[in-house]
Design brief:
This protein has 68 residues and is mainly α. The chain contains three helices and no strands. It has one domain. It comes from Rhamnusium bicolor. This is HTH psq-type domain-containing protein.
Length: 68
């Protein structure tokens, strides 16, 4: 029986990944401008939970820097 070559993987989603610059802009709008996460997520086309995760991570890094 002849062997077949493996198939080429195709993504199952058309999800767009955000660049680090876009993430920083969104996080800064939440932390520095005091806007709500949901509002920034809607305006910039982010998923709410993803932006919430990035904001939480940025807050933790800021607190860690202050404690040093």
């Amino acid at each position: 029986m002849p062997m077949k070559m493996p198939r080429t993987y195709r993504n199952k989603t058309d999800r767009i990944r955000k660049s680090p610059e876009e993430i920083n802009v969104a996080v800064n709008r939440v932390l520095k401008d005091g806007l709500k996460i949901r509002r920034v997520a809607d305006e910039l086309g982010f998923n709410f939970a993803s932006l919430q995760r990035h904001v939480k991570k940025a807050k933790a890094l800021a607190e860690d820097e202050q404690s040093k």
